[in-house]
Design brief:
The structure is a single chain. With about 450 residues, the protein is of the alpha/beta class. It has two domains: about 140 residues, Aspartate Aminotransferase, domain 1 (Alpha-Beta Complex); about 270 residues, Type I PLP-dependent aspartate aminotransferase-like (Major domain) (Aspartate Aminotransferase, domain 2, 3-Layer(aba) Sandwich). It contains 14 helices and 15 strands. Helix 3 packs antiparallel against helix 11 and helix 12 packs parallel to helix 14. The relative contact order is 0.15. Bound molecules: pyridoxal-5'-phosphate. Pyridoxal-5'-phosphate (PLP) binds next to helix 5.
C-alpha cells in the first residue's frame, strides 16, 4: 500500500523496465534486478525509493557543483518560466542569455568575449568544430577541417563529437563517422612510455611534441583544431604535466591551429577555478562548457570564443550557419545565473582550493591497498587506478575487469552508499568528482567506503 502523497514505486519500477531507455546501459542487467532509482537530493547526498542515503561522489555525472536541493536556484528557474519561458536565440536575444554571456566572459581569460549557447556538452563540442571549419573558410584556409584529440578522451556522443572522442570501443556501431578525427597521446604519466617514464616534465614535452608531429603528418594546412580537457577525465583523471599546455599553445600558434579547451567537466570550480585553463595558465581560443554551469538545475552548454574567431562572422551577409531550438533557454540561463550567485556567496572556488590538499591526502590513504595502483587528479576531481600487481603495474584482462567492475565494484559501492564510477574504458579506474561543498567529513566517508569495498574486491580476485 502506498499513501496518497507517496508515489507507487513498484509501478514506476515496472514502467521503467517497460518504457525507459537508459543511456550507455546494458538493459539485460535489469531483467532480474531493479533499476536503481534516485528520487531526491539534499546537499551532498541523494536518496533512493526506500529513503536510503548515498553520498554523491560523482556530482550526478560531474554536474552538481553546488549540491542538491537548492530551493533558491530552483525558484530562479520557476520565476523565469513565469516571466518568459521560452524564446529562441535565433535573431532575438533575451535578458538572461545576455546577462549570462556577459558574466561568463567577465571570468573567462584573455579575449574570450563571445558566448554561443547550446543545450549540452556534445553540442558545444560540435559547435566549436563547425565554427572552426567555417572560420577557416571565411579566412581563406578552406582545407582546414581536421581535429586532434587525445587517446581515450571523451568529448561527447553525437556524430561530430564522437569523431573527436578518442574511445575506440564506442565508435564501431556508428561508423562511418565524419572524417577528420586524429588521435594523439594523452598525459597518463602512470602509463608513460619507458623512455620518458622517469621525468614528468620530459614526458609532457614528448606528449606535446606528439601533437606537433601529428599536425605535420596530417599536413598543417588541413588541421583546424586541437581539443584538450584541462584534466582528461576518461581513463581516470590525467592532469597535465608541468609546461605541457604552454608547449601545446606554442605548437598551435606555430601552425595556425585552434586550441579548444573542452571544459565540460573542468570548468565551474571542479579544479578550484572558474575555468580549468586558468589553473594551468594557458590561453585557449575556445572554451566548451556544460554540466556545472547550472549545477544540473536545468540543461545548458556552450562555447566561449575569442574576439579573433568572431571577427570574420561580424561582416556583411555572413552568419554562423548553426543553431538549436533550446540553446540558451531562458530558464536554463536564469538558473545558471542563480548557480553562479551561489558560487560567489558561498565562495565555492575558495572551498575547493582550501580543501583540495585534504581531499588528496585522504584519498592517498588508499595507496596502502594492494589493488590501488595510482591516485591522481587535482581540485575535486580524482581517478583511482586499480591494478592486479602494484609492483609491475599489471592491469586486469577484459574478463577480470568485467567481473571486477561490473560484477562486483559498481553494485558493491552503490550498496555501500557511495555514488562514483567504476570505469574500464581505459585501464580500470574509480572516478570521483564530488560537489564543491564537500569538506573533510565527506572525504572521510568516501575513503572509508572505498577502503572497505576495495579490500573486499581484492579478496575476491
Ligand atoms: C569533456 C567532455 N566533453 C563533452 C561531453 C559531452 O557532454 P554531454 O553529455 O552534455 O553531451 C562530456 C560529457 O561527459 C565531457 O566530459
Amino acid at each position: 500500500m502506498t499513501s496518497k502523497s507517496e508515489p507507487d514505486y513498484a509501478a514506476l519500477q515496472a514502467a521503467a523496465k517497460r518504457h525507459l531507455w537508459l543511456h550507455f546501459t546494458r538493459h539485460s542487467a535489469y531483467q532480474e534486478g531493479d533499476v536503481p532509482m534516485i528520487v531526491r537530493g539534499v546537499g551532498q547526498y541523494v536518496f533512493d525509493t526506500r529513503g536510503k542515503r548515498y553520498l554523491d561522489g560523482l556530482s550526478g555525472l560531474f554536474v552538481s557543483q553546488i549540491g542538491h536541493g537548492r530551493a533558491d536556484v530552483a525558484e530562479a528557474g520557476a520565476r523565469q518560466a513565469a516571466e518568459l519561458a521560452y524564446f529562441p536565440l535565433w535573431s532575438y536575444a533575451h535578458p538572461r542569455a545576455i546577462e549570462l554571456a556577459e558574466r561568463l566572459t567577465a571570468s573567462a581569460p584573455g579575449d574570450l568575449n563571445r558566448v554561443f549557447f547550446t543545450t549540452s556538452g556534445s553540442e558545444a563540442v560540435e559547435s566549436a568544430w563547425k565554427m572552426a571549419k567555417q572560420y577557416f573558410k571565411l579566412t581563406g584556409e578552406p582545407a582546414r577541417y581536421k581535429v586532434l584529440s587525445r587517446y581515450i578522451a571523451y568529448h561527447g556522443t553525437t556524430h561530430g563529437a564522437l569523431a573527436i572522442t578518442g574511445l575506440p570501443d564506442i565508435k564501431p556501431p556508428f561508423e562511418p563517422l565524419p572524417p577528420g578525427g586524429v588521435r594523439v597521446p594523452n598525459t597518463n604519466f602512470y602509463r608513460a612510455p619507458s623512455f620518458v617514464a622517469d621525468d614528468i616534465t620530459e614526458f609532457g614535452v614528448w606528449a606535446a611534441d606528439e601533437i606537433e608531429r601529428a599536425i605535420l603528418r596530417e599536413g598543417p594546412e588541413s588541421v583546424a583544431a586541437v581539443y584538450l580537457e584541462p584534466v582528461q577525465n576518461s581513463g581516470g583523471c590525467f592532469p597535465p604535466p608541468p609546461g605541457y599546455f604552454q608547449r601545446v599553445r606554442q605548437i598551435c600558434d606555430k601552425y595556425g591551429v585552434l586550441l579548444v579547451s573542452d571544459e565540460v567537466i573542468c570548468a565551474f570550480g571542479r579544479l578550484g577555478y572558474m575555468f580549468g585553463c586558468e589553473r594551468y595558465g594557458y590561453q585557449p581560443d575556445v572554451i566548451t562548457f556544460a554540466k556545472g554551469v547550472t549545477s544540473g538545475y536545468a540543461p545548458l552548454g556552450g562555447m566561449i570564443v575569442s574576439d579573433r574567431l568572431m571577427e570574420p562572422y561580424l561582416h556583411d551577409s555572413t552568419s554562423f550557419l548553426h543553431g538549436v531550438t533550446f540553446a540558451g533557454h531562458p530558464v536554463s540561463c536564469a538558473v545558471a545565473l542563480a548557480n553562479l550567485d551561489v558560487f560567489e556567496k558561498e565562495d565555492l572556488l575558495g572551498n575547493v582550493r582550501t580543501n583540495e590538499a585534504a581531499f588528496r591526502a585522504t584519498l592517498e590513504k588508499l595507496n596502502d591497498l594492494p589493488i590501488v595502483g595510482d591516485v591522481r587528479g587535482d581540485g575535486y576531481f580524482y581517478g583511482i587506478e586499480l591494478v592486479k600487481d602494484k609492483a609491475t603495474r599489471e592491469t586486469f584482462d577484459d574478463d577480470e575487469s568485467e567481473r571486477l567492475l561490473r560484477g562486483f565494484l559498481s553494485p558493491a559501492l552503490f550498496d555501500a552508499g557511495l555514488i562514483c564510477r567504476a570505469d574500464d574504458r581505459g585501464d580500470p579506474v574509480i572516478q570521483l568528482s564530488p560537489p564543491l561543498t564537500c569538506t573533510q567529513e565527506h572525504f572521510d566517508e568516501i575513503e572509508q567506503i572505498l577502503h572497505a569495498v576495495l579490500t573486499e574486491a581484492w579478496s575476491r580476485l
